Amino acid sequence: MNSPLGGMGGQNKGMSPQEQQTIRMMQGAFESCVVKTAMSGVAGFGMGAAFGLFMSSFEYAGPAMNEELVKQTTKQQIKHAFKDMGTRSLSMAKNFGKVGMIYSGSECCIESYRAKNDLYNSVVAGAFTGGLLAAKAGPQAMMLGAGGFAAFSLAIDWYMHRD
Length: 163
Hints:
mainly alpha
């Protein structure tokens, strides 16, 4: 089995003990919940920024344009569009990053506690994430968010591990 940092499994024959120790330390760091959570947050932030940029571009296409915007000069319209794109990208980036961090961190903690990697971890982490994200809206929203996110997590994890 190929490991991401150490070449082929246990074949570290050409490496010094210090290099082997460094590789073990790096692998341990990448397996920690803190690093997984941070990496998920960064990846979510990047994907959210791209998604926000993509989605904001659709607002300026079609008949539902703001009349005040149409009356402005081209330079003002472009300035307004770029400002709006940046605002929406940042907003989506923060939201995607937050969701990624909460889900990944909770799943990693559950997996570490249970010492198992199965669908149950995804379902519980999804329920926790959905409930936490809907906490400000009240208990009914929390239950709906927990159930919805748990079902979505179950479906995605089942599909990814169905072999």
